[in-house]
């Protein structure tokens, strides 16, 4: 549906609106035109008649084009969503599904980075054409209670939007938050953010659970996750992330999601809230690695003094399959 909306918006901005502006200019010209009294202002009548006919033709053409385009787009999107949901269920099967998911994510990331090479080169040269990245929050459930509230997530989302807009000319589009009604298994509430956690996610029911929730909470983005292009980055709010000092985790391009501790979203007994954690983990999902510069967004500690990015980081971030023009 997102592509359908984008196509409709493109028709409005690039066809309908320019034609309406042209018609308005012609109407203004007709009003200002001197009246030929010998034919009782027939020149003005004719002018307005031509404008009226053009207006009708434009309205009919744009309306029919939009209806046909949106109908075809909607049918294709529904079919793709159903197919991708079925594939998502297969990828939620432990071990087999995890391996398929990892291979698919890496293959699509490599292919789409190769396609994005021109943009990567232009970014290095300082030319950054406006791009978009889509993110969605998913709040897990523990004993019937959500681990967080959407209002606690929004400040971090807004900061991430500011950072990527300023540093990369990438517009972060927040598509909402899903609060799952499913009671989250214990092994999915606590994440181990190292090689052990990577294989645990890949080969156990933990990864299966995340994939199943993704298929349901981000249903309309399902076919994007399969083909890679414009796939949403899903932000799972979990109960705990290990090691102890870790509050966010991403396994890079292998996954379409990141995890953030619920406690990191709120002020606990005066503790500092690292609201740039989500931006940091989104960048990891776009395959950016850690930096030893404490003023860099990718500084390995949550105690960053700034949220800047280097030129290579900007170029690599923008060439990710998650950063798109549509």
State the distance separating the first and last CA atoms. 12 Å
Spans with pLDDT under 50 lasting ≥5 residues? Answer: none
Beta-strand content estimate: 15-25%
Structural class: alpha/beta
- Please outline the major beta sheet: 7 strands, mixed
Give the helix tally. Answer: 11
CATH superfamily of the largest domain: Collagenase (Catalytic Domain)
Element pattern in H and E: HHHHEEHEHEHHHEEEEHHE
Q: Specify the helix fraction band.
A: 40-55%
* CATH class descriptor of the largest domain: Alpha Beta
CATH topology (level 3) name of the largest domain? Collagenase (Catalytic Domain)
Q: Would you report the number of β strands?
A: 9
Mean pLDDT: 84
**What characteristic shape results from the CA principal axes?**
elongated
Number of domains: 2
Radius of gyration: 25 Å
Polypeptide structure, described:
This protein is of the alpha/beta class. Helix 5 crosses helix 10 and helix 7 (195-203) crosses helix 8 (205-217). Helices cover 54% and strands 15% of the residues. The protein is built from eleven helices and nine strands. Strand 1 and strand 2 form a beta hairpin. It folds into two domains: 2-83; 92-324, Collagenase (Catalytic Domain) (3-Layer(aba) Sandwich), CATH 3.40.390. The model has no long low-confidence stretch (mean pLDDT 84). Strands 1, 2, 3, 5, 7, 8 and 9 form a seven-stranded mixed β-sheet that branches. Strands 4-6 form a two-stranded parallel sheet.
């Amino acid at each position: 549906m997102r592509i359908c909306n984008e196509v409709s918006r493109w028709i409005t901005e690039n066809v309908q609106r320019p034609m309406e502006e042209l018609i308005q200019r012609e109407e203004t010209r007709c009003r200002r035109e001197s009246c030929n009294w010998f034919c009782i202002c027939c020149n003005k009548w004719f002018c307005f008649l031509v404008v009226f006919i053009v207006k009708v033709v434009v309205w009919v053409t744009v309306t029919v084009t939009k209806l046909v385009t949106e109908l075809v787009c909607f049918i294709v999107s529904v079919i793709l969503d159903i197919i991708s949901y079925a594939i998502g269920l297969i990828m939620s099967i432990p071990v087999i599904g995890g391996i398929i998911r990892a291979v698919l994510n890496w293959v699509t990331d490599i292919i789409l980075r190769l396609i994005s090479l021109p943009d990567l080169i232009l970014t290095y040269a300082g030319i950054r054409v406006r791009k978009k990245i889509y993110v969605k929050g998913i709040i897990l459930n523990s004993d019937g209670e959500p681990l967080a509230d959407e209002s606690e997530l929004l400040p971090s989302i807004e900061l991430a939007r500011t950072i990527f807009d300023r540093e990369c000319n990438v517009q972060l589009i927040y598509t909402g938050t899903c609060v799952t009604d499913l009671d989250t298994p214990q092994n999915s509430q606590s994440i181990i953010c190292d090689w052990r956690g990577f294989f645990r996610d890949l080969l156990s029911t933990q990864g299966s659970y995340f994939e199943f929730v993704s298929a349901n909470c981000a249903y309309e983005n399902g076919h994007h996750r399969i083909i890679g292009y414009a796939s949403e980055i899903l932000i799972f709010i979990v109960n705990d992330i290990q090691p102890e000092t870790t509050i966010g985790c991403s396994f890079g391009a292998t996954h379409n999601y990141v995890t953030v501790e619920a406690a990191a979203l709120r002020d606990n007994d005066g503790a500092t809230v690292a609201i740039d954690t989500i931006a940091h983990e989104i960048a990891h999902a776009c395959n950016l690695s850690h930096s030893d510069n404490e003023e860099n967004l990718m500084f390995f500690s949550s105690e960053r003094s700034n949220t800047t990015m280097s030129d290579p980081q900007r170029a690599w971030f923008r060439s990710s399959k998650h950063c798109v023009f549509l």
